[in-house]
Amino acid sequence: MAKVVNLRFHDAGKPYRFLAGDMKLKVGDAVMVNTALGQDIAFVVDEPFELPDEKIDDTVLPVLRMANETEMAHYQEKKVREDDAFHKCLAFIEKRDLPMTLVEAVYSFDGKKLTFYFTADKRVDFRELVKDLTSCFRTRIELRQIGSREQAKMVGGLGICGRELCCCSYLDQFLPVTIRMAKDQGLSMNPTKLTGTCGRLMCCLSYEQAAYEDANRRVPKVGKKVKTPSGVGVVIYSDLLKEKVTVRFEKDEETEMEVFDAADVSLVNPPQPQCKQDCPKKKNAPENKKE
Fold first, then answer.
1. Distance from the CA of 49 to the CA of which of 145, 154, 256, 283 falls in 20 to 30 A?
2. Which parts of the chain are beta strand (E)?
3. Total-model pTM
4. Which CATH number covers residue 226?
5. Do 229 and 201 share a structural domain?
6. 67-80: per-residue pLDDT in tens?
7. Rounded to an integer, what distance in angstroms lies between the CA atom of residue 118 and that of residue 101?
8. Can you give the residue range of the structural domain that contains 238?
9. Which of 15, 45, 67 is at the close of a domain?
10. How are beta strands 140-145 and 113-119 bridged, if at all?
């Protein structure tokens, strides 16, 4: 068993796994690690935990040491330089009237590379902008276009639930979210209630989708004719969380409604299972053989 720890290089960046060794680390600690661009500072996002040796490959590098005061001071200075670079780049973008929105500027720890993250509705020709930035900062420049979800993850904020955005707090990757999930969960199709800060469907729609799909297999849908202990009626409302249905009855020119557990009702005309491999194949008619 090997002790590993998850580290982040940016506040809302992707966490990376490193070997913790015998180091006693806690959430928020700053450590030094090796990267493709040299040594960099990273921050602990989870308590160290153990993994079997077979799950550790050569890409999992060890943590070098705790960051010292000099390295922390350099990190704070780097943040100030990033803020200055952000505003200078913003001025260049406005000067050339480019259709792009600058999100963040990030220096590598050694200062040899400066990355600008931006969003745009379409492809942007930023070749002249790169020339402006290179002559201004005298370092390697990279412009990286990101999506609206990545932008929200970097900028941060609060969701309609009043809590910090999931993508900023703990989501490591974006799961696929579709409008079908909202329909399966019986949610209103109001876009303002289904979209998050990024303008896309909220990630939390996928959290309980498996439970709703399981309930939908047992609870009759609205409009279906069902048999109940009180007779045959039509489902006019289904509560997937409680697995209850409201059934309407037409009796003596009067309309009555009653609530039943989904387990106590059954479809009048249940769908027939489709024949696949288990169904016996039809025997072909005998062919006329030529003599």
1. 154
2. 2-8, 16-19, 30-35, 38-44, 49-51, 63-66, 101-107, 113-119, 140-145, 225-228, 231-239, 244-251, 254-261, 266-267
3. 0.65
4. 2.30.30
5. no
6. 999 999 999 999 99
7. 5
8. 220-267
9. 67
10. parallel
